[in-house]
Design brief:
This protein starts with a helix and ends in a 10-residue tail after the last strand. It has two helices and eleven strands, in the order H-H-E-E-E-E-E-E-E-E-E-E-E. 17% of the residues lie in helices and 33% in strands. It is of the alpha+beta class. It has a five-stranded antiparallel beta sheet, with no helix packed on it. Strand 10 and strand 11 form a beta hairpin.
Length: 162
Amino acid sequence: MLRFMSCSALVLGLAVATPLAAQQGMSHDSAMGKDAMGKDAMGKDAMGHGAMGKSGAFVQGEASVTGGYAVATMNGHQVLSLTDDFTIGKSKAPFVVLSTTTGLSDDAVWLGELKQNKGAQSFDIPAGTDVGHFTHVVVWSKSSKKSLASADLSHSAMSAGN
């Protein structure tokens, strides 16, 4: 009987030790179902933000510019966000626009006026907008009617409703 209990204890000990040993090689994020970028299986990051679609860097038009943008789906709708390092030279009435050119196309979608000339800021993309149709994010001056800056917008960006 003692011999049988020793074997049972040994088998039980191995059964418990094996999963613990396997877990020791796992990081906290992988044990919690997160990928290397800290996103869960639903594509949300640790802050609850949605999956990223497309991002790019601005190039100078009529104004000096640094920084870029990112398109993401947040709470079921698309948002275009300017990066923390975004800066643009002084200009009157600068608006963020989705366009099929580096300027203002006939079918451009106006996202909103810049709140400030530097730093992160976000713009809702209207529901039903097919972002994949557009080729550029443009900062357009309504007063001078010129492109202040633009950034390529790949056709791989997500469409509204997806």
